[in-house]
Design a protein that fits this description.
Layout: H1 2-13, H2 18-25, E1 29-33, E2 37-41, H3 45-54, H4 56-65, E3 72-76, H5 125-136, E4 144-149, H6 155-169, E5 175-179, H7 180-192, H8 196-205, E6 209-213, H9 222-237, E7 242-246, H10 258-264, E8 268-272, H11 277-290, H12 297-306, H13 311-327, H14 334-344, H15 353-364, H16 368-372, H17 378-394, H18 399-405, H19 410-426, H20 428-445
Parallel strand pairs: 2-3, 4-7, 4-8, 5-6, 6-7
Antiparallel strand pairs: 1-2
Length: 446
Amino acid sequence: MKAIWEDIKSQIRAELPKNTYALWIDPIRFLEATQDNVILNCPNKFSRDWVMENYFELIEGKLKGVGVGQVEMVFKAEAVKGHAEGVGVCAEPKQLTLPSIAGNGTARLRREFTFERFVVGKSNEFAYSASKAFGQGGSLDYRCLLMLANTGLGKSHLSHAIGHAILQRDPCSRVHYMTAEDFTNEMIVSLKHNRIEGFKEKYRRCCDVLLLEEVHFLSGKQKTQLELGYVLDALANEDKPIICTSALAPKDIPGMSGELSSRLTAGLVTTIGGPDFDTRVKIITKKASEQGLLLSEEIIGFLASCLRGDVRQMESALKSLKARGELVNAKIDVNLAKEVVSCLVSEAGSMSLEEICKLVCQYYKVDPVQLESKSRKKVHTMPRNIYVYLSRQHTDETIQQIAKSINRSHSAVVYASELMARSIKTDEKMRRQVNFLSQKLKDMKT
C-alpha cells in the first residue's frame, strides 16, 4: 500500500502547483492500511486540518482510481521520528508549528544550484564572494545579505547555494527557503484558521536560516511587511543568517515601509548585473559541457555576442541546438546557431534607443529632454515608461544603457518596465497605444 500511496502522490504532483504540492501533499506519509481504513500521517494538526478541508476529495478520488475506494481515509498528526527507510532525522521542536515549506532545508533547494556550478564574472564576483562567506559561516560583521538583480542573472542560484552550503556544514540546521509570495500566502492561511501564533513561532523562533526570494512582491502588503519586520528583528537578535533577493532596491519598491526597507538594507547589499562578453563565453561553455554539447569557439563566440540577456536565454539556445542535433540529425554549425538565435532575439534588436525616443516623443508630443527630466507629471511619466518598455522589447541594450539614456537608476527602469507590462494586461487603451507604437517600430525596420 505504501507504493500505491507514493504513486498517488506522483499523480497529485502533476495536477497541483509546485509550491502547493510541496507545502501540503508531499509531507503526508503512509502509516498503515487495515481492512476498513487507510491511515495517513500529516506533520502536525494544522496541516491535517488543511488537507482534510481542501484535498480530501482529491485524495479519495485517487484512491478509488486505483481500486482502494471501499475504505475510509484516516488522517493523523503524529510526530515522525525518522524517514520510512529508518534513517534518523534531526529532532523537531517540541511545540507544533506550521508545516515548513522547506522542511529541513532541502525540499525546495535545487540540487544543481551550488557554488561549484556558478559561473563567476565581473558582474557577479562580489555577490558570489559574499554568498560564499555566508554559506561557509564563521565570524562575519554582517548577518543579513540582500542581493539585487533582474530575473535570470543568478541571485536565486546563489541563494540556493548558500542553503546547500549551510546544510552541508550542519544537516540539522532549520533552513527556511521561500518566496515572499509563499510567506504572504502562508500568513493569510494562518490568520484565516487562527494559527497565527504557530506561524510566528515557526519563523521567529524555529528558524535558523531565512532564505527569502522576490522581496519586491511585498509591494503594498503592509500587514505582511509588518510581520516580516518582526521576523527579521527576532532572527537578527539571535545572530541568525538572513538572505533576501529582489529585483528592486527596497527604497524603490512602491508601498514599501521605511522600517522594513531599513531592516533589509541594514546588512550587506550586493547587485548582480548582466554578464559581459567574457562571462557569457564562460557560461555558454560550461552549460554546453553540462549538456554534452561540443561547440566550436566560433559558435560559442557567436552565441555570446548575440545572447546578451539572462542565463535562461543562453540555456534555451543550447537546448534548442541539442534537440535539433538529436531529433533531426541537424549539423550543429554557425548557420544552425543563427537559426536558433533568430527565434530568441527579436529581429528588431538592432533598433536604436534614439529611434524609439524620437517615435515616442512625436506620438505623445513631448520634448526628448522631458524623458530625462525629474518631472513626475503623468504627461511626462507615461511616455517615459513606454519608452523604457519599448526599449526593452525592441533592442538588445542592457538595462544600464537604457537607464543612462533617460538619467534614471537601474531599479527605476525595471519598475517602469514591470508597471507597463501590468498596464498592458489591464488597460485596453494602453495596450492599443503600445501595440501601435510596436508596429511602427517594426515597419521602420522593413
